[in-house]
Write a structure and sequence with these properties.
By secondary structure, this protein is an alpha/beta fold. 23% of the residues lie in helices and 34% in strands. It is built from 7 helices and 16 strands. 44% of the residues are buried. Bound molecules: FE2/S2 (inorganic) cluster. FE2/S2 (inorganic) cluster binds next to loops.
Length: 258
């Protein structure tokens, strides 16, 4: 992990409220694995004081791309940065996904949860692993990264309002798709809101599929110091782990879901 000054190559809106920023960041591009994240200082002033965490979304040569939703002061400031501006980026941080070379992969993305899964899908393709991608959104205008995922595997879409693809939650689509797979059962990787991940975990447990989830938690320090991103983990004696340091990727069936 390094704290680097990184030049912005572009920063543009890709869907209503969602932006993609590309950074010149050779160290992070070389060392990041899918599921890891970076902490970005969005402003040169102390407002906001804290860095913001973003999953590594894509890596291409020396370029690192981040996909983010504008949801507060930090991301609002970031969305106004221009090509050529320099920002402070700390990373790569956290633990990434485990790639199982013996199994096909099913990726389940909800909303901005697509961000780390595009990097994973591209890495799976590089390793010749068959991937099925289940992409969930509230409505069709909020479907993100369909084109990128299509380059890496078979994509199925679910929208809550039925405006595209399967009508309903992406977790119901997962149950249908996974039930149809015989042997060997696909490894499942998911990222999205916690209620979605909890349901993904239940479906996988019922069907006996290995599942890893990337948790989206609010983070302050990003390095395990502030204890602000706790998650409870099963064990003989349940224990508390930090999403930033011990995750953000965890085995789904190890998590004590709230
Ligand atoms: Fe501080 Fe995780 S963000 S411990």
């Amino acid at each position: 992990m390094k704290d680097i000054k990184s030049k912005i190559l572009y920063n543009r809106q890709v869907a209503p409220g969602f932006f993609k920023i590309a950074l010149e960041a050779p160290y992070i591009a070389k060392n990041a694995i899918p599921g890891q994240f970076v902490q970005v200082r969005c402003s040169e002033t102390t407002e906001p004081l804290l860095r913001r965490p973003f999953s590594v979304h894509r890596v291409e040569n020396e370029r690192v791309e981040l996909l983010y939703e504008v949801i507060g002061q930090g991301t609002e400031i970031l969305s106004q940065k221009a090509t050529g501006d320099v920002i402070d980026v700390l990373g790569p941080l956290g633990n990434g996904f485990t790639i199982n070379l013996k199994s096909s992969a099913t990726l389940v993305a909800g909303g901005i949860g697509v961000a780390p899964l595009v990097f994973l899908a591209e890495e799976l393709k590089r390793q010749n692993i068959n991937a099925t991608i289940l992409l969930g959104a509230r409505t069709k205008s909020l479907i993100l990264c369909e084109r990128e995922f299509k380059r890496a595997g078979a994509v199925h879409i679910a929208t809550d309002d039925g405006s595209r693809g399967y009508k309903g939650f992406v977790t119901a689509l997962l149950k249908d798709k996974l039930s149809a797979i015989r042997y060997p059962l696909s490894a499942v990787y998911a990222c999205g809101p916690n209620p979605m991940l909890k349901r993904v975990s239940e479906v996988c447990e019922d069907l006996g599929a290995d599942c890893e989830v990337s948790l989206e938690e609010k983070m302050a320090c990003g390095i395990g110091a502030c204890l602000g991103c706790a998650v409870n983990i099963k064990g003989k004696k349940p224990e508390t782990k930090m999403v930033c340091k011990d995750g953000p990727v965890f085995k789904a069936n190890n998590i004590i879901w709230p």
